[in-house]
Amino acid sequence: MPLPTDLCLAATVAADLGVPVDPSVERCVSAASREIARLCGRHFGRATVTEYPASYGRPFLLLERPPLVAIVSVVERGELLDPARYTIAGDLADGGLVYRLEDSWPDTARVGGLVTLTVDLRQGSPSALAVTYTGGFVTPGQVAVDPSSGPVTLPADIEEAAILEACALFRGRGRDAEVSAESLGDWSVSYRERAEGQRLASARAELLLAPYVLRRVS
Q: Is 110 in a helix, a strand, or coil?
């Protein structure tokens, strides 16, 4: 059963592996998709969400679900902000950035998982700055679950990375990840070990994903 968060289809992975689609392949697809989301520090699927971002008094807000499709509302200190005071035009949307057209955003930062106004208020207050928006890509999993949500807009290199990672996870099932070689009599086999710092099972997938990793100040 596909999940909306799946970044590729089990049928594609099964075809690459030369095996039938079964629950094992589906689990590897979903596991690979979760690993990729964690590696990149972002949610890929399109959704309408509310975030309480940290701005640190800068003119840019970085939201967690690029590309930005539309800003529904921005609430600042409990007041609805005029949409004419900010923009996501041009390349801003692709980077998940909301630009303040005048001055800067209020000086907010993350403290203990909440967002605080670091100058005016020391206690956690999500109402300090709240952004409701639609963002993210339409994933293969979302279209598989609901065809009307299509077409797929997920970049091809992200989908390819998910296929590679799912295949690597499937091939590695039942093997101790700490064992790099096995032998029995005249038979022996060696497994490629992960390079230092490598987080995914597929090194090629990790390279494909490098441009999509979000880095933010916490």
A: strand
